[in-house]
What does this fold into?
Amino acid sequence: MARVLVVGAGLSGLSVAMEASVRGHHVVVLEKRSSIGGRASSELRDGFPIAYGPHFLLKKGPLHQLVRKVSKVKPSVLPLRPHRIELLGHGMMQPRKPMMDAVLYRRASKSYDRDHPSIQASEDIASWGLGNEDRSRALLDSNLLALKEGWSGLVGRLAVTLDEVGIPIETGANVIEIEKHKVHLSDGRHVEADVVILACGYGQSKKLLPELPEIEFRTASTIDVALDAMPLGERHGILDTKHSMAIFDMKQIHPGIAPSGALLSAVHYGEGKGEDRLSQLCAFMDERAPGWKAHILHERQQKNVKIAPLAGRVEFGFARKSGILLTGAWVESEHILSDGAVAASRLAAEHISKMPLQQ
It folds into this structure.
């Protein structure tokens, strides 16, 4: 059994703590913020889970499997439906009529014909421009899911499970330096461990481990807004893949996600500065969700949100000689986005037993 110190209590940190505990290790989690969850969290306002842009769960992906494994109550999920997603300039992603368009869509979807505009749009939007075929096929097959409880509820499930198995999570614990088998906190404390796992995101990990290679990220701007109106009608979303923008009504996807009205989650994942992306995204919403500003109940905007690496990721064992393992969506695994974070956490947890213990 190893003493494992996890730095960061976001999705990566919670999942690696769970995986390490299952393997019999003694685990402690440190989080510098006052709350857990990181970017996977959402804030509940009058029953509306206001998040950081749209999140969709891949059915039977690593994260979905983990949540089902640790949950006593099955999470309530409903899928994005292609026939309720509008593609600007092409109509609905899955046309119902005219009949010939419906037939051509079915053929293209079955053969995954990348020349068809719906398959092109699916491959773009399902992974925010990263072109992941697995998530694209999942969208086409109605296997990208919205959670009724939002992502904060998902994080809450993991946190409750960690509490039940006795894994402590200390918030307000800011790690400022790492050496082999020891971390130093801003309050002057020093904590020893056999293995330190950095699950605090690439930016903070780079500060603690300057030798990490430089990584270029897909960055997005987001607007999340609760409304007392329904400007998208019954549509699940509107996509403008030419300009890398989308608006989703999370309540239309899962009616139980909010008490009334609409919960719009809009994203611009294209090039440019955050201020410019936000301005363009607002203009897109003005055009495609007319009158939304007059019906705002709650709103959150983010200029720059790191989505995922554009190219090569870092190996989870990059710093293993220093007694450090890495996890996160920016760490190498077979999956991307939230599933990548969980998959990398599993790899890191499996590797703990191969690490030299403190003498």
The chain has three domains: 3-44+151-215+312-354, 91-139, 217-309.
